[in-house]
């Protein structure tokens, strides 16, 4: 079987790769924020119900995360991780072109469900590249400076996201539905292609191509082995189930709550979204230094306080103008949580076969993320948005305390397997094992 060891980058190549990582992130963030924050409002304009908007978030998450382990194994079989990331990102961005022309040829429930299908395909193709992208970013960044690097990268990405969000909001306000959304989405596609091109120029460590793809039973065995062998990683996966379910139980419905319960205008939603981006931007350098000095888990615990409290902030907002305040405060804490969460998954996974471990985490956590909006949207149609938002807050705090209790600090835990654990038979035959 092929050797899975990495060919390390020299210092100059690593520096260049890190610069390209920032450039790719800037274009991708601007692109995503001209699309993502407005998908729910686009669906509302098409006539979608709260349950259908929940499905809009749930179905892409379910399909994307269900396929994370196959995506990880495909990445290893493919060999050229960068090529796979670029190809799938381009295909994902082409689906947005179909969304742009959707209002011209369909309407009613048919238009809504085709829109959900296109958004699902967009997320599906994008998710195929996630394990490869994550392992590449881990390989091109020195471990001791990851917090600072990703803090800086996030600052640049959030500046781009802020600009993209404000431009999209202005277009929606001036041109309305559907023209404002179509112009914004078209510009986002162009920026997305620029991101794909930038990423294609990144120097990365070479990895050996696997000899074959695994069968379905072997994929399930890989998932079980990845979760079972490393106790810290396993606990992180398990506590993420509750946390992600609670976060997504109401998260996709905040835009609907703003529009229907608070009476906010679609154009001002760009300002609300921009406030969140600004808050994340303001906090990135602070959170990056905190992560390097105090560890990823401690930053997640601090940031998690605001992230868990965000539903209650929305619940207490008396007027739609003050949605800016709730989103600003919540996003500041979310910025720290997300930065540390990404770094922690790199700390808790071994350098070899990281794509499989990342795929395992995304599968376990992502399946709960997909169930959250599906159930939350259904219950919102029955009991109302305010009740669903309160339940989301309770679930988030439950996941927060589970994480605090069960996941050890990355400063105290070395990435090591449980002694005596055996990998697949093909490794035993060759006398190879994971270190």
Report on this model:
This protein has helices at residues 11-33, 39-46, 50-66, 68-78, 81-105, 108-128, 130-139, 146-175, 179-200, 216-229, 231-250, 254-261, 266-294, 296-316, 323-347, 354-383, 385-406, 425-430. It is built from 18 helices and no strands. It starts with 10 loop residues before the first helix and ends in a 5-residue tail after the last helix. It has 435 residues and is mainly alpha-helical. It has one domain: Growth Hormone, Chain: A (Up-down Bundle). Helix content is 79%, strand content 0%.
Short recap of the structure:
The protein has about 425 residues and is mainly alpha-helical. The chain is about 80% helix and about 0% strand. The chain is built from 18 helices and no strands.
Fill in the keyword field for this structure.
435 residues, mainly alpha, Growth Hormone, Chain: A, 79% helix, globular, disordered N terminus, disordered C terminus
Give the helix tally.
18
Find the structural class using helix and strand composition: mainly alpha
Overall structural domain count: 1
CATH topology: Growth Hormone, Chain: A
Radius of gyration: 21 Å
Strand content: under 5%
The fourth-level CATH homologous superfamily is MFS general substrate transporter like domains
* Sheet with most strands: none
The CATH architecture is Up-down Bundle
SSE topology string: HHHHHHHHHHHHHHHHHH
Task: State the end-to-end distance.
Answer: 17 Å
CATH class: Mainly Alpha
